[in-house]
Amino acid sequence: MKTFLGGLLVVIAAVSIGIYTFSTFVYDRDTDTEPVVLDEGLEMENLPAANQVPSDVMAQIAAKSELILVRNPTPLSVVSSPLQVSGMARGQWYFEGSFPVTVTDWDGLIIGEGFVTAQADWMTTEFVPFTGEITFTVPPETPYKRGIIIFQKDNPSGLSQNDDALEIPVNFE
């Protein structure tokens, strides 16, 4: 029982530290106009106000903030095709300078796929900026105009232990 409680306490502490780190260093709650400076002069646009993004989404983004930071799209933003995506990811997120991005509708149906490319040398453990354009088509019979943009770690090995992804919920125009 002591081991279980100790493990649970460690998990709670790790999640709390991740959320604190994200909210302190990446997520600027006080202003809508000033960019947040992250590292070596790279800037990330502000995310929506904390009360607009569900806590589970913020926790998932915070948990991945040491690996990938998405500048565009922001959570719950309204997007249309073609979608310009940008941000920064650690070098290990890429393979051969790119990684896949998938767009799904509210039901999980894949409605678009593409790749983003590194804008600097990706053979590093540091953050590397990326950009890309993803084309998607929302089926006209889709009852809800919302979906997910999935930024997938490129995994050429195919081994499940090397899989990772960041999901950003969005609304379609």
What does this protein look like?
Helices cover 20% and strands 36% of the residues. With 173 residues, the protein is α+β, with helices and mostly antiparallel strands. The strands form two sheets. It has an eight-stranded mixed sheet, with helices on one face. It has a two-stranded antiparallel sheet with strand order 1-2. Helix 1 crosses helix 2. The protein is globular. Mean pLDDT is 81; it is low at 17-47.
Give the topology, please.
Layout (H helix, E strand, L loop, with lengths): L1 H24 L10 E4 L2 E3 L10 H10 L3 E5 L5 E2 L3 E8 L7 E8 L4 E9 L8 E8 L11 E7 L12 E8 L1
Parallel strand pairs: 4-10
Antiparallel strand pairs: 1-2, 3-5, 5-8, 6-7, 6-9, 7-8, 9-10
Helix pairs in contact: 1-2
Key terms:
alpha+beta, two-stranded antiparallel sheet, eight-stranded mixed sheet, 20% helix, 173 residues, globular
